[in-house]
Amino acid sequence: MDSEQLREEAHKMVDFIADYYKTIENFPVLSQVQPGYLGKLLPDSAPDHPEPLQHVLNDIQEKILPGVTHWQSPNYFAYFPSNSSIAGFLGEMLSAGLNIVGFSWITSPAATELETIVLDWLAKALNLPDDFYSTGQGGGVIQGTASEAVLVVLVAARDKILRRVGRSALNKLVTYASDQTHSALQKACQIGGLNPELCRLLKTDSSTNYALSPDVLSEAISSDITSGLIPFFLCATVGTTSSTALDPLPALGRIAKINNIWFHVDAAYAGSAGICPEYRHHIDGVEEADSFNMNAHKWFLTNFDCSLLWVKDRSALIQSLSTNPEFLKNKASQENMVIDYKDWQIPLGRRFRSLKLWMVLRLYGLEGLRSYIRNHIDLAAYFEELVAQDARFKIVVPRTFSLVCFRVLPPPNSEDHGNKLNHDLLDSVNATGNVFITHTVLSGQYILRLAVGAPLTEKRHVKGAWQILQDKATALLGSL
């Protein structure tokens, strides 16, 4: 493809994407197709000869988009958001166009150095401790997801403790977190070869709004030490998936420090709010952490994937993850003049992801990003008010950011405490195709979650979602 062909075909693709966003509200938010639908629509082998791009775009419109759940729809309120933006899209386009594989500095110096710079920019915007800056012993790196972030720091923590106590102690290492912690931690333990029975997911309840209790943690650590086990890793969460619970970082950090435990803070969703001064206190205590993670691709207008990880001691990562085969050796690396991010992650290859984050920061500015986050929190507060005004519903946990957890109250004689009723309400709402929400379970109760975070969401979309919820609840309660 020459430059003129690129120009022509790329214009068609940009037009297609622009039209998609222009009409995105016309699609069912949650895909309505059945499993196996696409195999019936596409041929059973690849074409022998080239086809025009327009034919492919026609198939995307007719066959692919019906099978897409539209995460960027203004009526998408499920899980947590996965933000897209023009700035992020343009950065992604440029990254794809350059198509460098930046595993070491020499493979594209700008890719490494820009990543270092923008991670330092964001460390400053979040008011992170100096130890997390690249100018010291630590620094930041872009991972694909928070799952990768927790895996690399868990492996670093594992190897650090084993260098001290001997590798034969692997089956004695204990990991701690709350039972609200993302399942990525359990997967990391599995991959890291740790004893799955020693991944302690400590029970939380409504008395702490589902945050990890320092007393419960201390008791578990003391018990394990008495039993001859070795506590080595603690994962705290700022904004859990179920309910955005906030683990008490200062107290947990002190416990970790006393017991020589690696302290990781997962703020994948809520970390973005830390750039707003009025929400920064939610990550107070991060100065006690050994590592800190947030996902720019969740709530920071940066297209997936872009998960930001900072560590205080980059040598811990490098000692665990570095390989140095002959074909990768070069003067800059051998003389320790540069960062080679291949040694901070699981794979060797890596994309030029810092481009899109850099473009988001420049084209929006920190004030633009703060306004964006505040708007979503205001919209969630508006939805919370609507729910509170209807006596048939209940807010289950206090709202902190832009997630509202609520449920419809069952009749007094309900045997399952309204779990089936709320399950049926969720299915009924999502079946309309006009809105998509998800659920969780807290203290045995089936809870509905509405997370505001799509870039195009306005007050009218929140109001519309509430109207659908009310209508469907009326129908279900009337049939009981």
From TrEMBL:
Molecular function terms from GO: L-tryptophan decarboxylase activity; phenylacetaldehyde synthase activity; pyridoxal phosphate binding
GO cellular component, one term: cytoplasm
Keywords in alphabetical order: Decarboxylase, Lyase, Pyridoxal phosphate
Parts of the chain that traverse the membrane: none
Domain of life, source organism: Eukaryota
Family: Belongs to the group II decarboxylase family.
Listed name of the protein: Tyrosine decarboxylase
Organism: Lupinus angustifolius (Narrow-leaved blue lupine)
Source lineage: Eukaryota, Viridiplantae, Streptophyta, Embryophyta, Tracheophyta
